[in-house]
Amino acid sequence: MDGNQESTSEAVNAYYSAALMGLAYGDTHLVATGSTLAALEIQAAQTWWQVEGDDFYGEEFTRENRVVGVLWVNKRDSGLWFAPPEWRECKLGIQLLPILPISEVLSSDIGFTRELVNWTLPALGRDGVGEGWKGFVYALEAIYDEESALEY
């Protein structure tokens, strides 16, 4: 197998959207299925993509990463399909877009969310960083500090 996944937030939002569609149509089975799959995807994202401590992925990987770029069946990468490992704002953004109410659930560990934002902020000073990618960092920061996020 050579399957891989780059954006957990897009997967979460697909299931979240299915649950919302179920609400709109009055389909309780679709609501339950979409909600369950969204919850499972969130748990998987927090387990496999959010890099906390050095026990799970090892000290060498953890030193430079707070999120996994691409997770394969048998390996993990620091970079993304479209961005090198140093583009931390893209690595954060791809795990957050699109921003919807369920994004706060995906980022519910405030301690880790703060660590992820602090890990990413220095990368925003690099030449060529797009305002859109910066926006994802500030949106994530707003989960725990609205005032600071609005200062940018």
UniProtKB/TrEMBL annotation:
Residues 4-151 form the Glycosyl hydrolase family 81 C-terminal domain. GO terms for molecular function: endo-1,3(4)-beta-glucanase activity; glucan endo-1,3-beta-D-glucosidase activity. It catalyses: Hydrolysis of (1->3)-beta-D-glucosidic linkages in (1->3)-beta-D-glucans. Its EC number is 3.2.1.39. Keywords: Carbohydrate metabolism, Cell wall biogenesis/degradation, Glycosidase, Hydrolase, Polysaccharide degradation. Belongs to the glycosyl hydrolase 81 family. This is glucan endo-1,3-beta-D-glucosidase. It comes from Corchorus capsularis (Jute).
